[in-house]
Design brief:
With 357 residues, the chain is an alpha/beta fold. Helices cover 43% and strands 17% of the residues. It folds into 2 domains: 9-125 and 309-326, Nucleotidyltransferase, domain 5; 134-305, Nucleotidyltransferase, domain 5 (2-Layer Sandwich), CATH 3.30.420. The protein has 11 helices and 10 strands. The strands form 2 sheets. The protein has a 5-stranded mixed beta sheet, sandwiched between helices. It has a 5-stranded mixed beta sheet with strand order 8-7-6-9-10, with helices on both faces. Helix 2 packs parallel to helix 3 and helix 5 packs antiparallel against helix 8 (236-269). The protein is globular. It starts with 8 loop residues before the first strand and ends in a 31-residue tail after the last helix. Bound molecules: 5'-O-[(R)-(carboxyoxy)(hydroxy)phosphoryl]adenosine (KG4) and zinc ion. 5'-O-[(R)-(carboxyoxy)(hydroxy)phosphoryl]adenosine is lined by residues 17, 142-144, 169, 172-173, 184-187, 190, 279-281, 283-284, 311-312.
Length: 357
C-alpha cells in the first residue's frame, strides 16, 4: 500500500466490450503496466462483437491478464490502494465478469472497490496523459457513443450534444463491413483511405450548417451503400476512394458540430480552456488533424491521448479510479453493473435540443 491518497496505487480492469484489460496506474500519473488482450480473432468470423462470445473470452482470460498487470508493475495485491473496474455502460456479461473479479480482489485485499463509468475513463484520460486541468470541452467518439461534453470536474459533466442515430464508431464499422474491409472497422477504413481520393464520391455532411451540437451518421452510411450499389464491381481503388470520401465527410461533420460546441462552451466557461478528444475513433489521424486545426484556430489547446489510450484500455479505468479515490468516492460491494449509465444524468434522453449555437 502506498502512503495513502497522495499517490495511490490503483488496479484497473476493463471488460465492457471486446478488450480484456488490466493496468496499474499511480497517482503521479505513471502507468506501471497496461495489458490488453483484444478478442478480434474470436469475433472476426461473425463480422462484429458477439456479446456471449465476448463474456466467455473475458472469463477465460481475465485472471491471467490481471496477474500479468500485477507482475509487470511489480506489485502484490497488498500494495494496492484500491481496485477499480468498469461498472458500465457496456455489454453486461463482460461488465459482470470484470466487476466481480475486482470485487473479489477488493474483498480479499481489504481495499476499496470503485465502479468506474467507462465513459468517465475515456473522459479523464487526457488528465493522465497530458495533465489537463478542468474545465475542458470533450468530444467523446467511440463505438457506442458520440457526445460533446463540458467536463467541469470528476463526476461533473454537462452534455452539449449527442448523436440522434448512430455513433460515429458504428458508422466506421458498418462502412468497413459494406466495403469488405472486415472487423475491427475503424482502423481498416483509415488504412484503406490512405490510398484513396477523398473528393471522388460526393457524400452528405449530416447536420452541417444546422444549429446545435448534435450528430447524425445514419444518412451518411446509407449514402455509402448507395454509392456501392451504383458501381458495377468494387475495385480496390473504389474501396479506397469510398473509404477516403467517407472519412472526409465524417471529419467535416464532426468539425462543424464541434465548432458550435466551442461557442457554447466558451460562452459558459470562458476562453483559454482546452479541447480534448477521446474514445476509439479519436485514434484516427485524419480526424485528429482536422480537429486540431479547428481548436488551434480558436486559440484552444488541443489534446488527443496517444492512439493506444484512445481505444479501450484499463489504464483509463485505473486512472479514473485514482481520481475517484482522491475525491473519496468509492463503491459498496453490492454495486450492480449498469448496461446504461449516462455521464450527464440531467441530459434529456433525446438529443439536447436546448443547446443553441
Ligand atoms: O472506445 P472504443 O475502443 O470502444 C468503445 O467504447 O466503443 O471505440 C471503438 C470504436 C470502434 O467503432 C472502432 O472501429 C473505432 O472506435 N476506431 C476507429 C479507429 N480505431 C478504432 N475509428 C476510426 N479510425 C480509427 N483509427
Ligand atoms: Zn470505449
Amino acid at each position: 500500500m502506498s502512503d495513502g491518497t497522495a499517490s495511490p496505487v490503483v488496479l484497473g480492469i476493463e471488460s465492457s466490450c471486446d478488450e480484456t484489460a488490466a493496468a496499474i496506474v499511480t497517482g503521479d500519473r505513471t502507468i506501471r503496466s497496461n495489458i490488453i488482450f483484444s478478442q478480434f480473432d474470436d469475433h472476426r468470423p461473425f463480422g462484429g462483437v458477439v456479446p456471449e462470445v465476448a463474456a466467455r473470452a473475458h472469463v477465460q482470460n481475465l485472471d491471467v491478464i490481471v496477474q500479468k498487470a500485477m507482475g509487470e508493475a511489480g506489485f502484490e495485491f497488498g500494495d494496492l490502494d484500491a481496485v477499480a473496474a468498469t461498472g458500465g455502460p457496456g455489454l453486461i456479461g463482460g461488465v459482470l465478469v470484470g466487476a466481480t473479479m475486482a470485487k473479489g480482489i477488493s474483498l480479499a485485499a481489504e481495499r476499496p472497490f470503485i465502479a468506474v463509468n467507462h465513459l468517465e475513463g475515456h473522459a479523464l484520460t487526457a488528465r493522465l496523459t497530458d495533465n489537463v486541468e478542468f474545465p475542458y470541452l470533450l468530444l467523446l467518439v467511440s463505438g457506442g457513443h458520440c457526445q460533446l461534453l463540458a467536463v467541469k470536474g470528476v463526476g461533473d459533466y454537462r452534455r452539449l450534444g449527442t448523436t440522434i442515430d448512430d455513433a460515429v464508431g458504428e458508422a466506421f464499422d458498418k462502412t468497413a463491413k459494406m466495403l469488405g474491409l472486415g472487423y475491427p472497422g475503424g482502423p481498416a477504413v483509415e488504412k484503406s483511405a490512405r490510398d484513396g481520393d477523398p473528393s471522388r464520391f460526393a457524400l452528405p455532411r449530416p447536420l452541417m450548417g444546422r444549429s446545435g451540437c448534435d450528430f447524425s451518421f445514419s444518412g451518411l452510411k446509407t449514402a455509402v451503400r448507395r454509392k456501392i450499389e451504383g458501381l458495377e464491381n468494387l475495385a480496390p481503388s473504389d474501396i479506397s476512394d469510398l473509404a477516403a470520401s467517407f472519412q472526409a465527410a465524417v471529419a467535416d461533420s464532426l468539425a462543424d458540430r464541434c465548432a458550435h460546441a466551442i461557442e457554447v462552451f466558451q460562452r459558459e466557461q470562458g476562453s483559454g480552456h482546452p479541447f480534448v478528444v477521446a474514445g476509439g475513433v479519436a485514434a484516427n489521424q485524419t480526424l485528429r488533424t482536422t480537429l486540431r486545426g479547428l481548436a488551434e484556430g480558436q486559440d484552444m489547446r488541443f489534446v488527443a491521448p496517444p492512439p493506444a489510450l484512445c481505444t479501450d484500455n484499463a489504464a483509463m479505468i485505473a486512472w479514473a479510479g485514482v481520481e475517484r479515490l482522491r475525491a473519496g468516492d468509492v463503491d459498496a460491494l453490492d454495486f450492480a453493473p449498469r448496461p446504461r449509465w449516462p455521464l450527464d444524468p440531467n441530459a434529456a434522453r433525446a438529443p439536447g435540443a436546448g443547446v443553441k449555437a
